[in-house]
Input
Amino acid sequence: MGKLQQSAAWWCFVGEDGLSPQDFVALCRDIGFDAVELPDEAYFPLIRDHGLGISALRGHDSIISGLNREANHDRIVRELEANIRLASDWQVPHLICFSGSRERLDDDRAVEAIVRGLGRVAPMAESAGVTLTLELLNSRVDHPDYQCDRTPFGLRVIEGVASPAVKLLYDIYHMQIMEGDIIRTITHHHAAFSHYHTAGNPGRNELNDAQELHYAAIFRAIAATGYQGVITHEFIPTGDPRAGLAQAHALTANAFAGGAS
Output
């Protein structure tokens, strides 16, 4: 079984209609989370002072104008280099990267461009011990026209760069929308996945019985691969965020411990 670490995505729980940063960080600590994800830099000391880590940061801007166009590469490389240094200073293991929107761009040309772009910074990431994780996002509901919207596309990039510092962020919610077959994909391609995101589908909400993904079985499949990384819960709570986070944490921990539900 893998050594599980759990994290919660900042943007889902902190904000005008959500928890304060202080309450969110304290809640994650009290539930037993290991880290939080995608916080503003201003809150790094608060997170550290509560004994938590930071599981991932955004590597560059933006989801739409991404690595699939070489015109963006000089900007993105500068942003990635700066964020690799930041991640190294704060012991953040992952920087999330984006393909950008398709805009009628051929997939073959897009893969070649992303390989070249990530290849420029992969040696620096390797030296810093930081993994650049290209995120798989759905293009049907949340991110229309996003190009890296299926696992085979992402795998071609990983194979092309051929660096231990360049992997995929396998977002279970997004890939359920695009292709399903979650457990088989994890079983066959887990070596390419350095990080996982969760949310219920449809709705991107809690990991409960109101949605179609059987997360206990999915988590057991991840554990069976020997995964030693982070699972980040990135769902938008419909009820009490405290209850939703506690339930997701317990479900995940029980599944990794070999529980049946």
